Amino acid sequence: MIITLIKEETTKEYDEKMKKKYGSIEKLEKILEKTPKNILYADLENWKLLLENPEENIRLEEIIITDNLSIGENEIKILNIIKNEKPKSVREIALKIKKDPANINNKINHLAEEGLISFEKGLKNSKIPILNYDKIEIAI
């Protein structure tokens, strides 16, 4: 099974992300003067290209290949809640779909192991589930 995780960004969003990461194009160019060409070179070239074409939107894709992913109705509900309602805890998701929190926690951990979601640290060591993609395409 091939899963494609898709994130679409505007040029402005990409520019802000790159500024946060590197400061400016000039700073990135100085970093590259001191290091051999590597992935930073691709970041620089992409950044320059997008600034030359500000009307372009960016489609970022991450591909996961797996044989053991099982996505049922509950997993789809969980992904939709995470994406659209931005819950602050696994318990909040369990309450929304009226399921046992331990069962939902297992499903969420499995989705994280497969790379479909990630976690941010919340209050008191809680885990906040995050879905950073706009689309998930599954090819069987």
Automatic annotation (TrEMBL):
Q: Which domain of life is it from?
A: Archaea
One Pfam family, please name it: HVO_A0114
List, alphabetically, the SUPFAM superfamilies matched: Winged helix' DNA-binding domain (SSF46785)
Q: What name goes with this protein?
A: MarR family protein
Organism source for this protein? Methanobrevibacter filiformis
